[in-house]
Amino acid sequence: MSEQNVIMEVNHLKKYFRLDSKRTLKAVDDVSFKIYEGETLGIVGESGCGKTTCGRTCIGMYDRTDGEVLYRGEDVHKMDTAKKKEFTKKVQMIFQDPYSSLDPRMKVHDIIAEGMRIHKMNASRAEEIEEVQNLLRSVGLNAEHASRYVHEFSGGQRQRIGIARALAVNPEFLLCDEPISALDVSVQAQVVNLLIKLQKERSLTSMFIAHDLSMVKHISDRVGVMYLGNMVELAPSGELYKNPFHPYTQALLSAIPIPDPKIARNKKQIRLQGEVPSPVNPPAGCHFCSRCPYVTDRCKSETPVLKETAPGHFTACHLYG
Ligand SMILES: Nc1ncnc2c1ncn2[C@@H]1O[C@H](COP(=O)(O)OP(=O)(O)OP(=O)(O)O)[C@@H](O)[C@H]1O
Ligand SMILES: [Mg+2]
Questions:
Q1: Domain-embedded: residue 242
Q2: What is the pLDDT of residue 267?
Q3: Atom nearest to 55 CA in ligand 1
């Protein structure tokens, strides 16, 4: 992928939360990566590692503590009001919880039409109605659903409404924050397949946050692995699964059940000891050093940076190079 295709560039991004006068929680602690136009970048890692904070800071929902996020070369956190309005139309979000993210007092039509009204996208009420109905059909719902309230729908259907709402303003970038983890396992695949189809049809770029690697594999072109506020590995998804370099990624992959017993037997099993340390006082050096089976003295003092350890494959670990 050439440099011209970069849609989002994240440089040394930090997002800290001030808990009180003495304690600062380092949710995102010096993260750099690029997202190329048309790709889906998966972000994985255990609960609390900073995925949501990273995603939300990247789209300007949160202010940043340090570093920068450039969207088509423009600093997301320094846009004037007019630029910001345009940006909030181009960049949409799909939330984890389709129960709390949709207003129960609004009809489905109004939920979906709200953004289009803000951006004055339809010339008439008739046009708006037609647009909403087209959107409902494109996410696998019926035009008649427009006059109902969200409590009348299942979790999977609600998430489809959330997707229609995001697509209503014709975005070019989607932040999907665990969009299926609150859904029944039986409908998860349907919603993922719908997202894959819509992304292709509309040439969307997206950042897809998820807990586990097995899910993210299907939808992502590349995957970034986060651990305690850091990006520890970033690679094309096939490559990451075949050839994980970082001990943390290896451990995450060991946790995925493999249907083929032959492959399962050959796979290196890494079991992590202990809990993720607190992001208030992360370990010095490599944040993973307290749980890493290969830890050395250097890891406890020097923070490894993300380096290209194979073509297009980046790893932040002193074991490499
Ligand atoms: N508004 C906030 N104020 C203080 N701390 C916060 C805030 N939001 C997040 N955090 C903390 O920042 C860290 C990262 O949280 P974040 O929600 O980004 O993680 P996550 O990877 O998305 O987790 P999950 O998989 O559970 O959604 C956590 O320790 C969390 O408690
Ligand atoms: Mg989250």
A1: yes
A2: 60
A3: 18
